């Protein structure tokens, strides 16, 4: 993946995990934005996590990556809100889902081990993921996909409706799952392909042996509200 795309991906991960507006990428390198401006914004954000100064022990670590998403498994970064994010897995996927006029392709998963180092950071993450009992140490994953619109109409979709692992672990937009906004916000013109992603929480009992997940994509609609495709069938992905 090109560096610019990697920075964008990291920015969106942090935005979701920390709440929209808490971390803003400025340009290609300043993932966490200007600390002075960020400090000023913190006074206006009721739920803003306290600004976190990365300890020297992290700054000196050969595993620590400053101001960008790690590219090597085992490396980590620390956000200015106090979330340590360690890249545990980064796997290319090749799973296609044919749902009438909509053609999906699941192409990547990144698994992150996370640590909320402050109570404020933990509170923000709980609200963002809508998981009230989320522990300070938790696992998350970003699943990337593309969708091609082979209909004759411009369509929109809510993205992913469920991601599940084993028995009882079903993530939905009501809890544990956050969709990237590009598919629903931008829509997809006839014949075009749009990239999307979903960020999900991986509960502890599933994270220990996380090698498979099932995914369901949402129904699609045209600009008049007419349904173009129903919800895609649940598809299991191994990695």
**Helical fraction:** 10-25%
Radius of gyration equals 18 Å
Biggest sheet record: 6 strands, antiparallel
The global form is elongated
Task: Set out the fold topology.
Elements: H1 3-18, H2 35-42, H3 56-59, E1 76-78, E2 83-99, E3 102-116, H4 119-129, E4 137-149, E5 155-157, E6 160-165, E7 169-171, E8 177-179, H5 182-186, E9 193-202, H6 204-207, E10 212-217, E11 220-222, E12 227-229, E13 235-238
Antiparallel strand pairs: 1-2, 2-3, 3-4, 4-9, 5-11, 6-7, 6-10, 8-9, 10-13, 11-12
Report on this structure.
This protein is an alpha+beta fold and 239 residues long. The chain has six helices and 13 strands. The protein has helices spanning 3-18, 35-42, 56-59, 119-129, 182-186, 204-207; strands spanning 76-78, 83-99, 102-116, 137-149, 155-157, 160-165, 169-171, 177-179, 193-202, 212-217, 220-222, 227-229, 235-238. The chain has a six-stranded antiparallel sheet. Strands 7-6-10-13 form a four-stranded antiparallel sheet, with no helix packed on it. The longest helix has 16 residues, at 3-18. The two termini are 19 Å apart. The model is unreliable at 1-8 and 15-47 (pLDDT under 50).
């Amino acid at each position: 993946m090109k560096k610019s795309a990697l920075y964008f991906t990291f920015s969106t991960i942090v935005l979701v995990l920390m709440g929209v507006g808490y971390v803003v990428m400025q340009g290609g390198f300043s993932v966490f934005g200007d600390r002075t401006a960020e400090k000023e914004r913190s006074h206006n954000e009721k739920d803003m996590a306290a600004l976190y100064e990365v300890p020297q022990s992290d700054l000196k670590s050969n595993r620590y990556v400053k101001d960008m998403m790690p590219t090597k498994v085992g490396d980590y970064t620390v956000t200015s809100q106090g979330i340590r994010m360690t890249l545990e897995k980064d796997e290319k996927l090749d799973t296609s889902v044919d749902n009438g006029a909509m053609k999906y392709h699941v192409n990547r998963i990144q698994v992150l081990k996370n640590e909320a180092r402050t109570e404020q950071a933990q509170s923000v993450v709980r609200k963002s993921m809508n998981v009230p009992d989320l522990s300070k140490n938790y696992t998350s994953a970003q699943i990337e996909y593309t969708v091609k619109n082979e209909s004759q109409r411009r369509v929109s979709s809510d993205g992913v409706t469920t991601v599940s692992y084993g028995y009882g672990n079903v993530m939905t937009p009501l809890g544990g799952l956050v969709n990237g906004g590009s598919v629903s916000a931008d829509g997809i013109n006839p014949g075009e392909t749009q990239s999307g992603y979903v960020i999900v929480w991986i509960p502890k009992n599933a994270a220990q042996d996380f090698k498979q997940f099932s995914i369901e994509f949402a129904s699609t609609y045209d600009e008049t509200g007419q349904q173009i495709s129903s919800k895609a069938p649940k598809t299991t992905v191994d990695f």
